[in-house]
Amino acid sequence: MAKLGLFVVGLLHVGLQIVAAEKLELVYQWTQLRDGNKRPATQNVVFSNDSVNNTEETFNAYGNLPMGVTHHKGFLYVTIPRRRPGIPATLNVIDMAANPSINDPTLMPYPNLLVNTLRADSVADPKRIVSVYRTQVDRCDRLWFVDTGYLEYPGGAVQVQRPALWVIDLNVHRSVRRFEIPPEMVEFGFGIPNIEVDVDASDCGRAYAYMPDYEERQLYVYGLSEGRMWRFEHNYFSFEPRYGDFNVARQRFTWYDGIFSVAVGGRWRESSTERTVYLHAMASVSEIAVSNRILQNETLANLGNAVYGRAFLHLGPRGPNTQSSSHAYDPTTGVLFYAEVNRNSIGCWNTNKPFDPDNHGIVHLDNEEMIYPADLRIDRDGDLWVISNRLPIWIYSKLNRTAVNYRIWRQSAFKAAAGTICE
Ligand SMILES: *[C@@H]1O[C@H](CO)[C@@H](O)[C@H](O)[C@H]1NC(C)=O
Ligand SMILES: *[C@@H]1O[C@H](CO)[C@@H](O)[C@H](O)[C@H]1NC(C)=O
Ligand SMILES: *[C@@H]1O[C@H](CO)[C@@H](O)[C@H](O)[C@H]1NC(C)=O
Ligand SMILES: *[C@@H]1O[C@H](CO)[C@@H](O)[C@H](O)[C@H]1NC(C)=O
């Protein structure tokens, strides 16, 4: 009895110190996306009134798999990459004020339907967007993304046009930059799944986009003021052979995806101006770090890997089953959050602590509702946004079309880290 008493007292004592970790909150969910034109009562993909010729394509509900989510001032930018025919818009927005219910929020083509509509003749059209995986919003109210220009249709992939980096000013809903990625950088754009933006603290004109290519295992950098793109190559951008085996929701598969996500972190060592950039491959459990001054140096990039190779630091493994799609850094807490696709979880590491698997924690794990967190962003208010979409079931089996398959989550980074090892 004495022992038990001690145990209880000890437990209470510990309990007083712990601030309960708050899991992510469900914001929106869908079973399948629906065609707003035909079923207005339950619409969630809305065709606008633009007189758009979209005759050759009929809406394909199953093919509309949402992939990326970025929040900005009450609007959620949601992408649907064109991996099947029948997708009316690859870039969409949810007006949160107009969608108070958690179920079936309406997606509206962004900036409009015409820009998102495929030309029936498949001719390149720089005014249109073909396929987008993920987006990023910077502190200057600009939406950045790569249009891969590529239709990944099974049995009939088509490069409609050159992949291009887009920058849209969200205050006026106009494109302020469109940069075609030249063939010297990469032949096809379908391996560019993600983007991170690094903006100068006082000058919106000085901004850099970091774009990983999991297929070619390269990292492209675009300088907004330079108006040019350069690239880095490194063995650390490759997949790790021992970590290519995935087991998600009873689907077992092997992936070879290389560099997949880039996150701008805090200070690089003692420097007040340089920042640490974190990156990782998808089929990998390792994290890499490099100074943003390296990435922003076009001259250095052109000198080749033999010159810059050692500037990329291999921090080590994060822990078992921590393969991650997107990750993002919260400047207030100093915590890096990971969307962990191989264990249906959101993970974390406080960058003020040594990089070690023991210092990596789990914020949220759910083997039913958090299957395949495909994207993770942190907005300017310090809120974490996640979309989960059950992608492996969609690819290797069949989604249950009457179950909830797609979910958007939110939590303040501070609350998410509280009570975990990342506090
Ligand atoms: C379509 O046009 C009508 C009349 O111009 C307008 O009231 C309605 O809001 C428009 N719908 C969309 C989805 O833009
Ligand atoms: C739509 O297609 C028809 C037939 O191909 C053509 O006559 C018409 O001008 C097109 N409308 C627009 C708005 O492109
Ligand atoms: C860029 O790299 C080159 C080659 O290492 C170096 O000479 C130059 O000083 C660097 N520029 C900056 C701004 O760091
Ligand atoms: C599909 O999901 C619905 C709703 O959750 C459930 O009732 C049904 O049993 C599921 N079907 C299968 C085959 O699992």
From TrEMBL:
It comes from the Eukaryota. Residues 1-21 form the signal peptide. GO terms for cellular component: extracellular region. Keywords: Secreted, Signal. It is found in: Secreted. InterPro entries: 6-blade_b-propeller_TolB-like (IPR011042), MRJP/yellow-related (IPR017996). Gene3D superfamilies: TolB, C-terminal domain. Coiled coil: none annotated. Belongs to the major royal jelly protein family. This is Yellow protein. It comes from Anopheles farauti.
